[in-house]
Structure formats: structure tokens, C-alpha cells
Amino acid sequence: KRTAATAVCFHPGGREFAVGTSCGTIQVWNRARVSGRPERAVYDAHGVDKPVHSLTYNVDGSTLASRSAEDDTCKVWNARKLSKSSLPIQTCTGLPSVHEASNAAFSADGRLLCAGMSEYREVEGRRKEIGSLKLYAVQSAGSTSADTSVEPLLTLELEGDTGPVVVKWHAKLNQIFVGCSDGTTII
């Protein structure tokens, strides 16, 4: 069916690109042979009709991370074997976000994934945004397990009334850049 694109990212080698849709599908298209259908796709990646708002490949393009603003997870997929029956390699839990654009970023070696968490809480009678960064160990693209849920290795709380929106992990500098909802940047 026809659906709106809500996220897109290029494979690091440039030979393909992944598209997230408003109906919850992740599609992988070959740049050289774009036709009427994607080469690979997984439907309802985050649940029935939950849009995919963020996609990112790891540095070698073997895995793909997806987020939806409508669930509290970041899912990691085997990008090379994506299909209708695919299950995520792992599901990073505990990631609610009040920002639709919230994403995730892989470390240069692909072993870690960094994602932001933000939610509103009542603090001293006032509604306040609480945010943190969470780091997860990433399983290899070939691993399979019945329970794919993983807890964070490390949680870094953000100060003030702000939450992370965009996370980028610079491969050469090995630094994480975080764009926050109050307009600040954290390195």
C-alpha cells in the first residue's frame, strides 16, 4: 500500500537506503535498481501502525537501528536479512521519548548503541522534562535469541529541564554529540 516516508538513511557504502514509513514498515531499496517495490522489508517493526521515525545504519551497514515515538524501544535489525518474518536482533528497552525526532547512534566499532530518553514528570508541583542518555551493548548481526530485550549498560542523566532529541556518534573523534530540547548541545 502507499504510505508516507517518515525516516530515511543511506547505507555507509551508498549502495542502498532504508526508509521508515508512517504505517510502521522498514524498507530497504537498492540505489542502482530502484523499482516499484523495495528489495527487503519488515512490516509493523514497532507494532501495528506505529510509524518508524528514525533509522540509522552501523558503520559497516550490517545492522540497522529503528525508533518510533509510539513505543519505548530502539530495535536493532540484521540489515542484510530483513524480511517479512524478521525479528529484531535486540530490543533496547526503557526509551520513552516526548520528541518524534529522537534517534540512536552506533559507536565506530558497532559494539555500542547510544539513545536518548525523555519524559515529562511532576517535580515540586511543576511539569518538568527529564532526560538521559543510555548506552547498550549491541549483539552481532548473526545472533538469535528468543528474548531480544536488553537493559542499558550505562545511563547518564542530563541536568536541567531538557531531554536529548538528536544523538550523533562521531566515528573518528569517538565523541557523542547530543542536541537537546532546550537548544543546547552536549559533547
Explain what this protein looks like in three dimensions.
With 187 residues, the protein is an all-beta fold. 0% of the residues lie in helices and 45% in strands. It contains no helices and 16 strands. The protein has strands at residues 5-10, 16-21, 26-30, 40-42, 54-57, 63-67, 74-78, 90-92, 104-106, 112-123, 126-137, 149-150, 154-157, 164-170, 175-180, 185-186. The strands form four sheets. Strands 5-6-7-8-12 form a five-stranded mixed sheet, with no helix packed on it. A hairpin with a 4-residue loop joins strand 14 (164-170) and strand 15. The termini are far apart.
Short description:
This protein is mostly beta strands. Helix content is 0%, strand content 45%. The protein has a 5-stranded mixed sheet with strand order 5-6-7-8-12, with no helix packed on it.
Biggest beta sheet attributes: 5 strands, mixed
Shape: globular
**What distance lies between the first and last C-alpha atoms, to the nearest angstrom?**
41 Å
Number of helices: 0
- SSE string, helix = H, strand = E? EEEEEEEEEEEEEEEE
Multimer state: single chain
Beta-strand percent range: over 45%
Provide mean pLDDT, rounded: 91
Structural class: mainly beta
Numbering strands along the chain, what is their spatial order in the largest sheet? 5-6-7-8-12
Output the radius of gyration.
16 Å
- The number of E-state strands comes to 16
